[in-house]
Design brief:
By secondary structure, this protein is α/β, with parallel strands linked by helices. The protein is built from 17 helices and 14 strands. The protein folds into four domains: about 120 residues, no CATH class; about 60 residues, no CATH class; about 50 residues, no CATH class; about 210 residues, Uracil-DNA Glycosylase, subunit E, CATH 3.40.470. A five-stranded mixed sheet has the order 3-4-5-6-7, covered by helices on one side. A five-stranded mixed sheet has the order 9-8-12-14-13, sandwiched between helices. A two-stranded parallel ribbon has the order 1-2. Helix 10 packs antiparallel against helix 14. The chain starts with a strand and ends with a helix.
């Protein structure tokens, strides 16, 4: 039996795994250990001597999965990874990762999901506190302490670098730390616990949290799972949570009465076959297994929080899923969340959303009765100073996000579908769709009884006060009236 210690590091595991594989040592003959686990009299037996022979090839999919799993806190991860590697290569099971019911594969995927959730929580719940000024740069300095479930500091540091690029900060966790000084992102060891000094910044977070608190989305159990109590002591807003929860039921009942109508569509969706075809054409099932399509909206929403089908999740705050009654007769689809939508986690709440609300009201459509969503669920932007400038999603990003949109369509089954801008129409109808060529009712899409393609409200915003804007606004209103 060979006992090996891996220094919590993917590269270290990879090197050792490669040598073992080349020497043909089976997983049953190895004990993988964490540093410090070793008994007093035990020592490593030396690894097989290095060889120049090429190691058996493995797919990128496995390597990327393994690199993520290396950040899991489970002590069994190295053994599980080596067993999977062995089965994929010398074991002759090259399609193993497609067999999602295999116990090893399903465990690996579950671990990846746990890491994704942990990353999402860290993005949402790190709270910086001001600790003074950096004498070298003259910039304000901030610190945060956070306790993730897994070793995810290296996976999240870039997100904070992009988001808080204008300030100097350091984040400490028990298993790693990171700091940014405007020029260099540094990684360091973990620390036991850092007492971050109290600061006025708390007040800002409290104000922000109160303003985004949405009682209709409140599910106490889900919220406590999402924001476990262990994080609460680091959150300045935590003492507001109990009172907001208790005050929310009444508000929610009022909102339900206002929003919900009896289901009109019910039964099987006549477009189901067509929609399924749309998703399979894109061959995205590797990211989102087929059996997730068609589950209730809450399931989809929950699953989408972990979506990593394209790189946009890396810089965005989180997934912005659609919202509205799940039996809405009208579904509105935009391009992607903007800056404000990204921060608040809700579609169409920024300037374009406010303009849209005005036109919907003018057209006699109550937004609260519509299901509102986007073709792409993460904000794509380039940082410019403190601002984040919108960038349009590319065809690959649109297609990777499409299963979520189709899933929403399958669940809501709207009678009328309104597509704002070319991205939405390209996602669902035709990758070359041009609003300038086909505007208004689009025939024979098979997506809903009535499908309307029109310009995006942000196009109207970009026209500012030009005479053209008046003309365009009138056309936009006409398109919305078609829907009603
Ligand atoms: N633009 C969109 O397309 N969607 C939003 O949610 C906001 C702006």
């Amino acid at each position: 039996m060979l006992t090996l210690t891996v220094e919590n590091d993917f590269e270290d595991w990879r090197e050792k795994a490669r040598a073992l594989l080349l020497a043909g040592i089976s997983p049953a003959g190895i004990i993988w250990e964490e540093p410090g686990q070793r008994g007093l009299f035990e020592t490593d037996r030396p690894l097989p001597p290095p060889t120049t022979a090429p190691a058996p090839r493995v797919s990128r999919e496995f390597l990327s999965l393994a690199e993520t799993i290396a950040h899991h806190c489970s002590a069994g991860r190295w053994a599980l990874l080596y067993r999977t590697l062995w089965r994929l290569t010398l074991g002759g099971e090259s399609n193993l990762l497609k067999r999602t019911t295999d116990p090893d594969v399903s465990r690996l995927f579950r671990m990846r999901k746990e890491i994704s959730r942990d990353i999402h929580k860290m993005h949402a719940f790190v709270r910086f506190k001001k600790t003074g000024e950096n004498p070298e740069t003259g910039r304000e300095r901030f610190m945060a302490w956070f306790e993730p479930d897994h070793r995810i500091m290296p996976l999240t540091a870039k997100f904070f670098q992009k988001r808080f690029t204008g300030m100097d900060w350091a984040i400490f966790t028990p298993t790693g730390s990171a700091s940014w000084d405007g020029k260099e992102l540094r990684h360091g060891p973990g620390v036991d616990k850092v007492e971050v000094p109290e600061e006025k910044l708390d007040e800002l977070w409290r104000g922000y949290y109160k303003s985004i608190f949405n009682p209709a989305r409140l599910k106490v159990k889900a919220m406590q799972a999402e924001m476990p109590k262990k994080y609460w002591h680091n959150l300045p807003e935590s003492d507001l949570i109990e009172s907001l929860i208790s005050g929310s039921r009444h508000r929610v009942q009022g909102m339900h009465k206002e929003h919900l109508r009896p289901t009109t569509s019910g039964g099987k969706n006549p477009y189901l076959k067509h929609l399924r075809k749309l998703t399979s054409q894109d061959n995205n099932s590797v990211f989102i297994p087929d059996d997730h399509i068609g589950k209730p909206l809450d399931d989809l929403r929950e699953l989408a929080t972990c979506c990593q089908a394209c790189p946009l999740h890396q810089a965005a705050t989180g997934t912005v899923f659609g919202e509205g009654p799940d039996d809405a007769e009208i579904m509105l689809v935009g391009e992607q969340p903007g800056d404000q939508e990204d921060l608040l986690g809700r579609p169409f709440v920024g300037p374009a959303g406010q303009l849209l609300d005005r036109f919907l009201a003018e057209a006699g459509i109550d937004r609260k009765t519509c299901y509102v969503t986007n073709a792409v669920k993460h904000f794509k932007f380039t940082p410019r100073g403190k601002e984040r400038l919108h960038q349009s999603p590319n065809p690959d990003e649109i297609s990777r996000c499409k299963p979520w949109l189709v899933g929403e369509l399958l669940e809501v089954k709207p009678r009328t579908l309104i597509l704002f801008g070319s991205t939405a129409a390209r996602s669902l109808i035709d990758p070359n769709f041009k609003i300038t060529r086909l505007r208004g009712i689009v025939p024979d899409t098979g997506l809903a009884e009535k499908v309307i393609a029109t310009v995006h409200p942000s196009y109207l915003l970009r026209l500012r006060d030009t005479p053209q804007r008046e003309v365009e606004e009138a056309l936009f209103l006409k398109d919305l009236q078609l829907a009603r």
